[in-house]
Every structure is written in structure tokens, then in C-alpha cells.
Specification:
heterodimer; A: 30 residues; 1 helix; rod-shaped; B: 179 residues; 8 helices
């Protein structure tokens, strides 16, 4: 139960920050 | 969460154009993975406008929600679990009602600037994606029909006023319903 929650939280954080920082990462890469 | 604000919104929207266009980053990545044959994502449609709006205003929703949720007393969650509530029920009956002020604040913070948004629908949207801000611009500067533009602006003010008045009433409501 707790492990599922940890996985869910990690996935949500990764998706959220990935979404927010994808354009900035692209700008930095260019 | 607020680090993206260090860069101009305009530049970040242009980055989304580079990501979403048919030869862009995401389409090439999906094609390289063998998931698609033809470009899946495109700009100049409703999806790209919604994506751009979500991207631009997500932090305005996250911050009030985080503020509201971080003040939540975790012992309430434990108590609900001890009383036999499943996680979904704990969320629906404990977490959600207690975080409603944050949800309402975030919704207002997002709604007010998003409804008049011009840059995102202009750059990411096509001719078929209409938003009030874009209509205003077109009436003022392309059609030079100022009476129509003024009427659209009044509609925008009315659209903004209604939820603000509702929020004001909810805030000022006397808390007599609580036991």
C-alpha cells in the first residue's frame, strides 16, 4: 500500500516536472 | 514549480511550437520509438491550445493547492483510515472538502488570466480555435470594428465578474451551517 503510494507520488512528480520543464530543456538544448 | 516563470511565456510557447510541430521533438521521438508512422501531434488545433493553457497556468493551480494541502492535518487521514475508510473515500470525504478553499483560489487564479489569453491561442491555435482575447484582437486591429470589439470586451468583463461575485459570496457566507 505504502509502496504503491510512493510509486504514484514519484510518477506524478516526474510527469508534472517533466511537463513543466520540457520546453525549458528544449530551449537549453538549442 | 515557479522556475519556468524565469523565462518569458512567449519564449516557452515558441518552444512548445518546436515540440509539437509535425517535425518536432515529440513526433520524432514517438516515430523513433516505432509508436507512430505519421505525425500524431500538431499545432494549430484545439489540443495544442489547451496544452499551452494548461502548461502556462499549471503553477497557478499547483501553488494554492499545495498551500492548502500542506496545512492538512495528517492525523485526520489516519483517523479516517482507522475507522475503515478506503483511500478513495478518505480523499473524497476528508482531503477534498478540506482543500476546497485552495481549489477555489486556484480556479480563480487560473480562470481570470486564462479567459482573456491571447498569446497562446494566437501562436498555438489555428483559425478555428476561438478565444475571447483573440476575437478582441481581431475586432480591434484586423476588422477595425471598435463597437463590436467594445461589446466583446464587455462580454469578457461579464464573464469575469460572475465567478468573482460567486467567490465573494462564498467567502462572506456566515459559517452558521457548521455544527
Amino acid at each position: 500500500m505504502s509502496r504503491n503510494l510512493t510509486v504514484f507520488r514519484a510518477a506524478a512528480l516526474a510527469l508534472g516536472f517533466g511537463f513543466l520543464y520540457l520546453p525549458i530543456a528544449l530551449l537549453v538544448a538549442y | 514549480v515557479i522556475l519556468p516563470f524565469w523565462t518569458s511565456l512567449l519564449i516557452r510557447v515558441y518552444a512548445w511550437i518546436a515540440i509539437l510541430q509535425p517535425t518536432g521533438l515529440l513526433n520524432r521521438a514517438l516515430a523513433a520509438l516505432g509508436l507512430i508512422d505519421q505525425p500524431l501531434l500538431r499545432i494549430s488545433n484545439g489540443f495544442s491550445v489547451v496544452l499551452g493553457l494548461v502548461y502556462a497556468y499549471l503553477p497557478f493551480m499547483i501553488l494554492p493547492l499545495y498551500g492548502s494541502l500542506s496545512q492538512l492535518d495528517e492525523s485526520l487521514l489516519e483517523a479516517a483510515a482507522d475507522l475503515g475508510a478506503r483511500p478513495v473515500r478518505v480523499f473524497c470525504e476528508v482531503v477534498l472538502p478540506l482543500s476546497l478553499p485552495g481549489v477555489a483560489a486556484g480556479a480563480l487564479l487560473v480562470f481570470i488570466p486564462a479567459i482573456g489569453e491571447f498569446v497562446i491561442p494566437d501562436l498555438l491555435g489555428g483559425p478555428g480555435t476561438l478565444m475571447v482575447g483573440k476575437v478582441l484582437w481581431r475586432e480591434f486591429f484586423d476588422n477595425v470594428d471598435w463597437p463590436a470589439a467594445a461589446a466583446v470586451a464587455m462580454v469578457l468583463v461579464a464573464l469575469l465578474t460572475a465567478p468573482l461575485l460567486l467567490a465573494q459570496r462564498l467567502v462572506e457566507r456566515p459559517e452558521t451551517s457548521r455544527p
